[in-house]
Give the backbone structure.
Amino acid sequence: MADPALTFDDLGLKPEILRAVNEIGYRTPTPIQAQAIPVVLMGRDMIGIAQTGTGKTAGFTLPMIEILSRGRARARMPRSLILEPTRELASQVAENFETYGKYDKLNYALLIGGTNMDEQIRKLDRGVDVLVATPGRMLDLFERGKVLLADVKILVIDEADRMLDMGFIPDIERIIGLLPPLRQTLLFSATMPPEIRRLAARFLSNPKEIAVSRPATTAETVDQRLVRVPMRDKRAALRALLRSEHPRNALVFCNRKRDVGIVCRSLQRHGFSAGQLHGDMVQSARQETLEGFKRGDPVVLVCSDVAARGIDIDQLSHVFNFDVPHHAEDYVHRIGRTGRAGRAGKSITLATPEEAKSLAAVERLIGRPIEPLAVDLGDDAGADSDEADEPRSGARRGHRSPQPAPRPPAEKKVERKEEPRRQAPPRRPEADSKPSRPRPAPRQEREDAPVIGLGDHVPAFLRPPKRKS
Ligand code: AMP
């Protein structure tokens, strides 16, 4: 742990940066920040073994702003380059620069796939101090002559082990080959597999190595609880917990994409402020939902692991695991969304007897049993059985519209169609309607479709300039 008495003022950052940091509400540097910032300011190469959630982004963005504020960028020649494995991470890092650098006159550009690049290319033409990019897009624009890398003084390779998983190491090697040999290189990785060690040995010079404990072990800040519940009471249990816990904001994780919609609509029907995030959403809808969630509306965001990847919500009070994740590591990622940077958070996992194996794997991974939590369902017990969750009157039978109507009553029908996990006997196909032709598969059935779209946020500087009135 870093010295708890250490403040940002002790790290050698200039007043403009300290002011920005203070305004966001950070009081003390996290361990990775306390250790990394002085090293980066010294101009040394560095290996940071740290995961997201440790505050590592500010660990490199703050000192970079300090260093880069002394100098000017030339057209098409960025002075620093940050490589990120995903668009979401790239967007978040770019947004961090904007936030922390608000009192500095640095220029930033973001090069990621899936967005219109004209404005970013115009920025590059004018000269940028910080270029945040995914490797593929970076090489693409380099090959098209839109960017020159001969003036890059600082290179950051972030999430190197994820880059490795995603097959980006050859691209990174190519990019490094385009950079001047005299530069400062910072490499961050949650783990250090041999391939990353080799990469570091090849491209970093006498690096200082800093390791901070993974959120898996810093989870002391997360109060982890387990609610054992039969399948048919899961939604009722979630509602009871939301009522008793009063979360400021909560993510609810489902294992399957189709359940995201089911749980979300169920919560909405019961009067909760709930939204959903799933992989089929177009980028604009995804972004709108996330921004709303950050503002507090909706309070509850139901999501799948894939759709939630890269979400960075400050001060998330609760994480609910509507399902025990199939992969135990996902549990660590999920609950790591709360209790960040030393703040208190709570995670509650709902587990049915059928999920005992997955639960055992999670408890093995975290090295202890999750403390049980009792939940009182009251009259709500069993309320979500197949029968009870449907409209009660004739609406249930015979009024199926051939087109999915957007209004809530029609959504109930969609929800019913999508219920795949009930142990109830298989539905007789179309017993309650008279379909004359087969219906197309519901959209939600493409469960494993990849996330489409940019990701969490598009930083303000990527959006069209605000008109001054
Ligand atoms: P990161 O590991 O960079 O993804 O950061 C994790 C979260 O911690 C982000 O939501 C940051 O806004 C937050 N954070 C970073 N540094 C601090 C700090 N010194 N104090 C409190 N929160 C922080």
Q: What stands out?
A: Residues 26, 29-30, 33, 52-58, 312, 314, 340-341 surround adenosine monophosphate (CB under 6 Å). Residues 222-389 form a domain with the Rossmann fold fold (CATH 3.40.50.300).
